[in-house]
């Protein structure tokens, strides 16, 4: 198992910045295996050694996998000077540890995975893996069978890019249509631009699935939970081939 600096471990578990946790160590309230720690740079194995802060055991997790039901108005980033970010919605012990896997537009809601597992994140985002993303959308305008056929062939966006084939399912067609669309890419504003190619406007967009991972509909907007073992295993299994 990996040895890490004590101050890094404390900071990554939400106990403060590196500077702040060094102060905790200086106050002699941090112990490792019952011995007072005096060196912020001491190397420990957090999975094997017992760390306490002022008598409270440190709850250490190497990997974190969080499902968030992202609300509109929040950006998919770890920090921003102007807007609330998705990590601002999380508790301290995760906030400085995880990053969003991909991005949802500021006005898009729904499923967002956050993790500190860079390998899984890269795999889920790699174009070679062709991980599908499914969205529910409300469209201003009538969506027809012709659009289904066009999406199946791939759509030419405003910059000339030809998308990969996409699956379009019409739930309701009318002045305001409701659809499910599944894409295997993540181009900037892709779903909106695909419909814009047919002079249709997306007025509401929500991601409901990423690969085998389904949005937990019991989560209210802004709520989150850790992935279950079953969900995590299904994600990893889906990325084994390549």
From TrEMBL:
GO terms for molecular function: RNA binding; rRNA pseudouridine synthase activity. SMART domains: S4. GO terms for biological process: enzyme-directed rRNA pseudouridine synthesis. Its EC number is 5.4.99.-. It holds the Pfam family PseudoU_synth_2. InterPro entries: PsdUridine_s_RsuA/RluB/E/F_cat, PsdUridine_synth_cat_dom_sf, PsdUridine_synth_RsuA/RluA, PsdUridine_synth_RsuA/RluB/E/F, PsdUridine_synth_RsuA/RluB_CS, RsuA_PseudoU_synthase, S4_RNA-bd, S4_RNA-bd_sf. GO terms for cellular component: cytosol. Residues 4-62 form the RNA-binding S4 domain. PROSITE patterns: PSI_RSU, S4. The keyword DNA-binding does not apply. It is an enzyme of class 5 (isomerase). Coiled coil: none annotated. The keyword RNA-binding applies. Keywords: Isomerase, RNA-binding. Belongs to the pseudouridine synthase RsuA family. PANTHER family: PSEUDOURIDINE SYNTHASE, PSEUDOURIDINE SYNTHASE FAMILY PROTEIN-RELATED. This is Pseudouridine synthase.
């Amino acid at each position: 198992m990996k040895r890490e600096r004590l101050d890094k471990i404390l900071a990554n578990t939400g106990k403060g910045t590196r500077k702040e946790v060094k102060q905790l160590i200086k106050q002699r309230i941090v112990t490792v295996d019952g011995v007072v720690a005096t060196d912020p740079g001491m190397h420990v194995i957090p999975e094997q050694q017992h760390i306490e802060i002022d008598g409270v055991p440190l709850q250490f997790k190497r990997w974190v996998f969080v499902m968030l039901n992202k609300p509109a108005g929040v950006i998919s980033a770890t920090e921003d000077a102007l807007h609330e970010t998705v990590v601002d919605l999380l508790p301290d012990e995760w906030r400085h540890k995880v990053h969003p896997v991909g991005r949802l537009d500021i006005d898009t809601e729904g499923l967002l995975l956050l993790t500190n597992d860079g390998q899984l994140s890269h795999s889920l985002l790699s174009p070679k893996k062709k991980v599908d993303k499914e969205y529910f959308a409300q469209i201003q305008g009538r969506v027809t069978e012709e659009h289904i056929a066009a999406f199946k062939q791939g759509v030419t966006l405003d910059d000339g890019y030809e998308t990969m084939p996409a699956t379009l399912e019409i739930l309701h067609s009318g002045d305001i249509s409701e659809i499910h669309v599944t894409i295997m890419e993540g181009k900037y504003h892709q779903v909106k631009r695909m419909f814009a190619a047919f002079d249709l406007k997306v007025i509401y967009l929500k991601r409901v699935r990423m690969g085998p991972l389904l949005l937990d509909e019991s989560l209210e907007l802004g709520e989150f939970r850790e992935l279950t073992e079953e969900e995590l295993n299904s994600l990893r299994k889906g990325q084994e081939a390549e």
